[in-house]
Design goal:
The structure is a homodimer of 380-residue chains.
Chain A (H helix, E strand, L loop, with lengths): L9 E5 L3 H10 L5 E6 L12 E4 L5 H8 L4 E4 L6 H9 L3 E2 L3 H8 L1 H10 L7 E4 L14 E5 L9 E4 L13 E5 L3 E11 L5 E3 L3 E6 L4 E7 L5 H18 L3 E10 L4 E7 L9 H4 L4 H9 L13 E7 L6 E2 L1 E3 L1 H4 L5 E5 L4 E2 L4 E8 L3 H11 L4 E3 L1
Parallel strand pairs in A: 1-2, 1-4, 2-3, 4-5
Antiparallel strand pairs in A: 6-9, 7-8, 7-9, 10-11, 10-12, 10-14, 12-13, 13-16, 14-15, 16-21, 17-20, 18-22, 19-21
Helix pairs in contact in A: 1-8, 2-3, 3-4, 4-5
């Protein structure tokens, strides 16, 4: 990092959606040279970089060709061609997170096996290859069927409560996950750089929208007691170290009524549950990701102000070019930050943006969130 | 602002340097569609926008052609062709700040006349057209000669102490400004939107580097007593209203030993003395500028954390492609934010970036600034 010429370090980012966009906003501060690969010619990042390549990140040749002249390749989505990434590593490209980490994380079945092998706490499960295997597990109803690969934002998950429901099940390799009585859902973002420095962000607590299977809002800090916070921190660091990840790992946890912690799932990238770090923490998850892959010292993750984060999702009955209602009313509030992702088309429940609310106390932030919740709408 | 489609509002920005870059970082949150005009084909903003036009912003036709298909035209530098801006206004383009405001502000002589006409306090002065008129004012030595147009970053100012020094004077239209005994130099950034809403940021206090004639560091909040703060606020609002500006106005003040406030000069744009607002205030000057020109409600300007801002300037003996030393050591500190401007070439004293330091108290932020001051260097 001495005699550093940031613009000469070529960073390739697989994915040019909202996560990439927020990475770029931070990369601008360090004058980093980021190139984007995304299949969508209207990707949110398209006009924010020198090199935008429109192509599939699941195609071997496209990923290989995109990455071969880069110093570092990273991701904002895990569903990428890892075969190409392994081959890029062989020619000396640094791939962070490493291809084997991406392979483990992008398959919810391999995640479960990884947790099991490393004696990490997670709910009971069975792996199946197709729908017709589900009836074998009828004694365990109700359970969740999760597609092993490709699910996102609540898609790829179905709750199965009885044999009659099996017809609605996915006919694809899946995890059958036993239902647990969840008291709280929380999330920890942990970063590790190439030198092995590891830092966690304080736990955030999630409240889900049952209709959309999306995070409705989250708040930071969580309401956990400090010993539980410490337990989650220790566990998160253990997971990052067991994976040997360089980059960002977002881990979602269930906390049961008796206080038992179970790992729900993890993603090897910046995550929706860390968006509030932009305004509310000393370092944001996006800058921390860049620090991790550039082997810089990790930033201080502590909280500047308590925060609530609301997802802005497409209205139920609207599909088409997005319009935004309520901008003036929303932006009157102190400590309210709108992030529009710049997706051209809105669809029901599509993540179109988020709003971060900061205040002196978490109670005040929640009150403010409640009062602004319905002000801002995405329509078509 | 209802049924708002931000990407359909075409905003043209004259200038694509660091100020433009920081405006774009905020514009990304609202998915705004900004085009840039800049004469430098390596301008820091070049790769951050869909439309980058390489051309002179002082050329009538270039500015007119750039602006004619825009809804709003704004600036990050005041030395632009205002004739073209007046003609753009005539065809319905909104030009913020308005061309007449830019004309007043870009000429330090017209600024002085404006202050005089509006009974706004400023130091005594004379206007001259050429060097040979200076000797007429020999009874008033020492004074500062300031070029009426085109000075920036300490360039275009010379101190004249005796008749012998006149040979070093500028031979161009200038302001001769009587020296005053200055106790403090402070700055206020004030915004006004099209509806007439006006808001000031809290006063920041500047400490100058006498060699470079650049701000060495500034701190926020200033150490002024609350009645003086209020007086500056009232005066700043009065100036913005007298100008009828829509946009951002940065006003630099002298405070004399007896407490008298004098206006030093003003710039009709975002300003070096407001960079700390990115991390340290609820709204940043860059977002506030966008809110002003889009006629959105102005954001809350209050302080989240006390801050110090250090300019990162090119080392004295280095000229050439910029390299950065000390990145790892610098980024270890909590609450320290590096902003590199992405200028390809460094020159002695060239502004290459800035560092914002936040902490719980202004004393702690100053202490931290002192300890990191010499860690980071720009070399060639």
């Amino acid at each position: 990092m001495e005699h550093f010429q940031p613009s000469e370090v070529k960073i390739g980012l697989l994915g040019g959606g909202q996560l990439g966009k927020m990475i770029i906003q931070e990369a601008i501060n360090y004058n980093l040279n980021i190139s984007i690969l995304d299949p969508d010619k209207h990707a949110p990042c398209k006009h924010l970089v020198k090199e935008f390549v429109c192509g599939s990140f699941s195609d071997y040749q496209t990923v290989y060709d995109f990455g071969k002249d880069k110093h570092i390749v990273t991701i904002e989505i895990e569903n990428v061609n890892t075969e190409a990434l392994f081959d890029l590593e062989k020619i000396g490209v640094k791939v962070f997170p490493q291809p084997q980490v991406i392979e483990t994380c992008k398959d919810k079945g391999l995640q479960k096996i990884f947790f099991q092998n490393n004696e990490l706490p997670t709910s009971d499960f069975f792996l199946i290859d197709s729908k017709n295997q589900i009836s074998k597990y009828k004694d365990f109803f109700p359970f969740f069927q999760k597609l092993r690969v490709g699910g996102y934002d609540g898609k790829g998950v179905v709750k199965l409560t009885s044999v009659e429901k099996i017809e609605h099940a996915f006919d694809a390799p899946s995890v059958l996950e036993m239902q647990v009585e969840v008291l709280k859902e929380v999330s920890v973002i942990v970063n590790r750089n190439e030198s092995g420095e590891v830092k966690c962000f304080p736990t955030v607590q999630c409240v889900f929208n049952p209709q959309a299977h999306l995070v409705d809002y989250l708040f930071s800090p969580s309401d956990l007691k400090s010993n539980k916070e410490q337990e989650l921190k220790t566990l998160s660091i253990k997971i990052a170290q067991a994976l040997n990840i360089v980059g960002t790992l977002a881990i979602e946890y269930f906390i049961k009524k008796d206080g038992t912690i179970l790992i729900n799932e993890m993603a090897p990238r910046v995550h929706n549950s860390g968006h509030q770090t932009i305004e509310a923490n000393y370092v944001s998850q996006f800058e921390q990701h860049l620090r991790s892959i550039l082997n810089m010292p990790l930033g201080d993750t502590s909280i500047v102000k308590p925060a609530v984060m609301l997802n802005v999702i497409g209205s139920e009955n609207a599909e088409g070019p997005a319009k935004y209602d309520g901008m003036s009313n929303l932006t009157k509030y102190k400590g309210v930050y709108l992030h529009l992702y710049g997706k051209h088309i809105t669809k029901p429940y599509r993540k179109m943006g988020h709003i971060t609310i900061i205040d002196e106390t978490i109670e005040a932030a929640k009150m403010k969130a409640l009062s602004i919740k319905d002000i801002f709408k995405v329509t078509a």
